[in-house]
């Protein structure tokens, strides 16, 4: 029953979902999914439900911190509407002057990053503290130290041999290897328990197309420095894009990421055009639009009724079991 309902609303059971499990067989460690509770968020790819917090991790060197890449990750992270922390790893590889200059630069973007070193175990307690009591997802490019950080946090949690079989079956190394291999396998996400009652998932990044589904008018929400500039002020036009309109509260120059803002605006515009072409008037019957948080417009295909026919009880039960075993 639940399965049929889930299918109808196009839901799969995701990592992070709060579910009700019944008919539990403790010996074989099996149960049946009776219900999936309301999901607060489902913004990420690979999909993780009920994420409270994003930890955006980059490194200062090896690979070098690159403002354009960092901006793209940050904008995508901001576009989910989930609270985020920016941490910059490998800070032992750069000089004090370089560190100060990044600090000042990123303050101009309205970020106060946490500088850490997983290798030298510096400021990791602060990260662990931020992760307590919530479900976090760590995002960032390859090589910045995501898996290393998770390993560290995991070893903090572990230590004693307890009944942790469910967790131990999924090693961090495995996830990161899978994450790099291909589109299909990046969907294997596991939530790892961290000390203080939180959970942490490692993902290789976001689905690129999510970003481009931002509306032009919503892009400025994803730039904290613009948010700061228009705080308590009003642009003359309600749908101001802040690109030099008369009476705009946003400065046209003097802030570093203005060119990135323009660039992303242009990409959104191009994407919107091609989407209109694709889903315009002709195929409108097959899709509907769902406008989510912060004006992110999502195309939702209409359901093919035949495809979502009820399955036999027996078949459904088998599917639940195999899903749980997965
Ligand atoms: N110098 C230095 N290297 C680090 C640090 N943290 C991780 N690394 C190294 O960076 C490389 C990539 O780390 P990994 O955790 O696999 O990154 P991921 O791709 O983001 O999961 C590994 O060789 C790590 O040993 C650090 O704080 N300093
Ligand atoms: Mg990794
Ligand atoms: Zn404006």
From TrEMBL:
Database matches in InterPro entries: G_CP_dom, P-loop_NTPase, Ribosome_biogen_GTPase_RsgA, RsgA_GTPase_dom
Feature: compositional bias, Basic and acidic residues: 304-314
Gene3D superfamilies with a match to the protein in the record: P-loop containing nucleotide triphosphate hydrolases, Probable gtpase engc, domain 3
Region (Disordered): 304-326
GO molecular function: GTP binding; GTPase activity
Keywords: GTP-binding, Nucleotide-binding
Domain EngC GTPase: 49-207
Domain CP-type G as annotated: residue spans: 41-209
NCBIfam families: ribosome small subunit-dependent GTPase A
HAMAP family, A to Z: GTPase_RsgA
Protein name in the entry: EngC GTPase domain-containing protein
Organism: Eutrema salsugineum (Saltwater cress)
């Amino acid at each position: 029953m639940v399965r049929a309902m889930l299918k109808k609303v196009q839901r799969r059971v995701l990592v992070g979902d709060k579910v009700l499990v019944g008919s539990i067989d403790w010996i074989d460690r099996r149960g049946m999914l009776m219900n999936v509770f309301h999901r607060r968020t489902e913004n990420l790819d690979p999909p993780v439900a009920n994420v409270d917090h994003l930890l955006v991790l980059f490194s200062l060197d090896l690979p070098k911190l690159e403002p354009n890449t960092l901006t793209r990750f940050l904008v995508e992270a901001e576009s989910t509407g989930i609270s985020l922390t920016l941490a910059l790893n490998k800070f032992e590889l750069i000089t004090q002057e370089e560190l100060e200059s990044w600090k000042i630069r990123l303050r101009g973007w309205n970020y106060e990053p946490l500088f850490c070193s997983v290798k030298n175990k510096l400021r990791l307690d602060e990260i662990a503290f931020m992760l307590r009591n919530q479900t976090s997802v760590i995002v960032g490019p390859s090589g910045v130290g995501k898996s290393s950080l998770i390993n560290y946090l995991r070893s903090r949690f572990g230590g004693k041999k307890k009944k942790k079989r469910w967790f131990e079956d999924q090693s961090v190394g495995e996830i990161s290897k899978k994450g790099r291999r291909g589109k299909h396998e990046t969907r294997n996400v596991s939530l790892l328990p961290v000390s203080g009652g939180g959970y942490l998932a490692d993902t290789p990044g976001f689905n690129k197309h999510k970003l481009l589904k931002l509306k032009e008018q919503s892009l400025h929400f994803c730039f904290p420095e613009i948010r700061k500039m228009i705080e308590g002020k009003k642009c003359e036009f309600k749908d101001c894009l802040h690109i030099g309109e008369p009476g705009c509260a946003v400065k046209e120059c003097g802030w570093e990421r203005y060119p990135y803002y323009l660039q992303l605006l242009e990409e959104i515009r191009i994407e919107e055009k091609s989407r209109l072409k694709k889903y315009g008037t002709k195929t409108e019957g097959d899709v509907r639009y769902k406008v989510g948080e912060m004006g992110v417009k999502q195309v939702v295909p209409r359901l093919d009724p035949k495809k979502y026919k009820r399955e036999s009880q027996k078949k459904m039960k088998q599917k639940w079991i195999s899903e749980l075993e997965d």
